[in-house]
User: Fold these one by one.
Assistant:
Number 1:
Amino acid sequence: MRCGYVQRHIVVFLENQMPPDVAEKIKSHLSWCKHCSDVAKQVEEVRQPVKDSMGVDIEPPPGMVQSVMARIENMDQAAPAPPDRRYAFIAVLAIIVLFLAIFVVPKILKLY
Ligand SMILES: [Zn+2]
């Protein structure tokens, strides 16, 4: 396991949101890697007061951790939004305008 991986996932690990097998690997990495265990300590120091001051455990909504993790995993291959996204947006906009023109505008003008 590499330091980069451990440090990118340290918050998830500290939140106990890691799959047990991965958590075990991170734990063993932290036991011998001073650099990563220092990072873990710093993260813990920042995290704890935030939790304490809020008086509650911060629970991420279900699925959020996984989606963030997936994003982190894909960061290296991050590509700009595919062009069809833009066309989809224009299509949605066109539908909204059409809807307004057909249903809303006549109502406002009291045509019905
Ligand atoms: Zn390390």
Number 2:
Amino acid sequence: MRRNGAAARLLAGLILMGAFAPGAALGQQATPPLPAAGRTDSLAASLATANARVAVWDIPDIDLLPDDEEGRLVRYGRSVLEASARHMGPDAADPAQRFAGNNLACVNCHLDAGRKKFGLPLVAAAADYPRYSTRTGETADLADRIDGCMTRSMNGRAMPRDAKPMRALLAYLTLLSSALPKDAKIEGAGAGAIPALERPANPARGAVIYAQTCVACHRAGGEGLRRNEADASFGYGVPPLWGPDSFNDGAGMNRLVTIANFVHDNMPNGVSWVMPALAPEEAWDVAAYVASQTRPHRDGLDRDFPDLLDKPVDTPYGPYADGFSQAQHKYGPFGPIRAEIARLKADKGRVPNPNVR
Ligand code: HEC
Ligand code: HEC
């Protein structure tokens, strides 16, 4: 942001003006948001960094793109994002295109076709890659990052660069970012930052909240609701949260900070971070309940993060550079781990992962 600060502010201003015109993108607040319960800290933080983050952006209306090769590819990409299982799931019509290992859709997590603030938006992705990946220790381009979700969130395999779903997703994501400057940071990126707990998140308390607030949609066994019982490729009306057709244990959604914030700001489906239904504490506990369930396992996770000091504090699998237990990395509290990592960083700079040659 340092280099492009002035340009980004100028563009942010222009985009702000454009936001009041008809056709401005959905899923964002044009006015400063009201503080919600437990949100004051991050609101202050977002105001403090308001100059650096693009608050409102414009996305061309995809349905108005011409019916040429590019327009068709972008529309196909939106469809791959929304009906992933149909195009590339384990039961997709063309066996050569079965890259995903489950019947989730990208949009189940990247809400509103990747446009919802704190719903893991993809609006800035094409502007932000290539970028260094702490998980692999290498520079990742946008296709590599998509494959990160293919192999973990979608529990499948990487796609060849020239596979049609990959080309289409890249075209769609490039269009989403087309109004943003290179390296732009958007307001509402990720899943949010609810206040941390001072105690471990509690799966038993979470089970009670799950039974009250989630079970009607996600079902007692976490299996969700298929659109078509006879054909899994139609995907889910409500996606599973655990079990054999869910994301695997190496996925970002399997980290407590990510899922707690995602649930707080987006669940029950339809709420937003401006007016959440759950208190932060309830979100932590219900997320812990989901995290305590079984899901597909990905081999080789112990080789993630070549520098162990880059490993997010809530990564639920080792090895770790600090002395904290796996249980604390899974359920928190994370404050003490964060402090120890900061101390080790100041002391040693880096701690190589012994499993990476
Ligand atoms: C189970 C939930 C889930 C599913 C399904 C999923 N993702 Fe993700 N995705 C995530 C999480 C969590 C992140 C990390 C977000 C962060 O770090 O802010 C992420 C990050 C990304 C990013 C990087 C965004 C950025 O700006 O850094 C891209 C691109 C992406 N996903 C694409 C996809 C695509 C394409 C699909 C479908 C093939 C998909 N994802 C399916 C959860 C999911
Ligand atoms: C009204 C029905 C409904 C309720 C209630 C609900 N969800 Fe969801 N949930 C959904 C739908 C639908 C999606 C997918 C959204 C999409 O595809 O646009 C989803 C997506 C998710 C995801 C990301 C996708 C995945 O497979 O992991 C998580 C995590 C999640 N919900 C957790 C919860 C939790 C925890 C609760 C209870 C606090 C809850 N939901 C309550 C309908 C619901």
Number 3:
Amino acid sequence: MKYYGRICHNLESITTEKILKKIPGVMFQNRKYVCNQCTNKDQSLFMKYYCHHCHKMTVYCRYCINLGKVQSCKDIYVIESHHERTKGFYNLTFELSEQQLMASSKVCDAIIQYKNLLLYAVTGAGKTEMIFEGISKARQRGDNVAIVSPRVDVVKEVYLRLKEAFEDEDIDLMYEGQFAEFNSTFVVSTVHQLMRYENHFDVVIVDEVDAFPLEMDNQLMTTIRKASSKQSSHIYLTATPNQALRSLFKTSDIIQLPARYHKHPLPVPVFIYNKIKETKLNHKFLKTLKLQIEQGRKTFVFFHDIEYMKTVYAIYKYHFARIEFVSSIDELRHEKVKLLRENKIDIIFTTTILERGITLSNLDVIIVRSDMFTSSAIIQIAGRVGRKVKQPDGKVMCYHNGITKNMIRAKHEIIQMNNLAKQKGWLI
Ligand SMILES: [Zn+2]
Ligand SMILES: [Zn+2]
């Protein structure tokens, strides 16, 4: 492999690549420390210690430590970028919908002109397929392409789909613990891993940009900018764009994609006043869950708080044989998700970790205390339902202790997308 466009900590693996510059890992500039690997300037993230190699105090950056420690007493190397053209060939085993074709041509235009674009697409619109043609055009021109997401599970899934379509391309997959194998001409990675690059990518596609924690927005943009060539195109894909993201684009550069691939509308949340107590069995809730099983439906029950979920779970677990709970701190979560896919669980209590990624048929969701959720979380959760062509609908039940603005906003946005899809003639 070649280290084109990368920031290297030593020159051991460098062969024919050209070294652009040699700089200290951390420098002191305008009375502040600055990390030359990740551009971090937050002074609280720099640590000092006595270096026994140099016999003096050294400063290192904690923010990018899992990409390898960079410090003030050691130089890092920026390797020159490089461009390789390919045929950009890809397979597509099905036809794109009218909406996908429209989106695909917008993406191509933006890439060809090195412009930015925000694709605001409902869950289940088939976003990945909309970027194939654009990637192909970019690779034919020799552009370096990166597809990034904040989330490792999304990165792995997108990689598998791209690998299947672009079988002749050398695609690098990168996340923590998974390293590049090829020349970084076509990379699928977490946003974090993009910190390894400087001035290299001509096209950066950010998938599920809304999954990025808000407080890290600035770092996200800085990382992408630093990894990108002077002239580059950035495409953002999201189902729930926040105001900060929208404000970065002209209205004409925000493309709304309101229809799901199967052309059925999004399920609209139903608000149900129902307080779920931690101490007492709720008969309405129990009856609903029993009915779900009788009807052969699966149920995801979402909670905003792990402890609350566990206490409530303890009350209901005796009533069902195939019930489980899962959370982000659950060590068995991958096993539990596997059981779910294998159809061995009927009801799963969960925190928001299941809000993305998992697609099951016959699925309905209940959001307990939906008054505690943000509108984008409600939209993401509702987006789990009715994804399959054979099962395009389902229920989104929002239990609440009082309707909130966020709940209304979520419902309103879903109805608006459905209306827009209908107007465009993109629904059956
Ligand atoms: Zn750093
Ligand atoms: Zn040292």
Number 4:
Amino acid sequence: MDVEPINIERAMAQVDLEQLRSRGSVKWSATNDSQLGAFIAESDLPLAPSIQQALADAIGRGLTGYLPTPVARDTAAACATFQRRRFGWTLDPAYIELLPDVLGAFAFTLGQLVAPGTPVVLPTPAYMPFLELPGAVGHELRTLPMDLVDGRFVIDPQRLAAALDGGGLLVLINPHNPTGQVATREELLAIADVVERTGSTVFADEIHSPWSIRAASMSPTRRWTNAPPRTP
Ligand SMILES: Cc1ncc(COP(=O)(O)O)c(C=O)c1O
């Protein structure tokens, strides 16, 4: 399906404060009227017409049960097309599995894709739940404070190698929350080098990639590594 590019200003002109408050979303209802739950990453933009239409069609057909295999297959193919068109990354849809959300994927990774107790290395500052989940399911958390160098938050490869010594799971968030920073190709290659040398695994959270203002500069981590993807 061809989708029109978003014009943010036009989209924002369709919503006003009154509507946002009456929508009742968590961000707008978690606090009192003089405050805003700005820490909650819910979009204020109206849902894209094509998404509204697809949801209405599915509900109209009574498609409210389990995920049918052909729908999962089409979604995986659409995801691969999006990655190729937006980021120039060609990936086989057969490697794409659908999961309900990022934290569910992270919990699945800790439970199924790495050895029990594998240490989790998390560059900080970080999106809060990544600090809590590993310990809750029996994994040691090793935080790795990033360095602020010339206005950029950078991961020091030497300290990363020390944290991943013996193998670990690196949580790599790109574009990064909360700094908003997009990793460069060189930074990703330096990280990939350490990951390979230490026999580690990467959990790449690229949830914010479609929002990257300079989308062309956003490089999905897997594009720069040669190892085959790990599947369950
Ligand atoms: C970097 C990052 N990952 C994950 C999430 C949450 O993802 P989900 O709700 O799909 O688990 C957020 C939400 O703010 C986020 O900023």
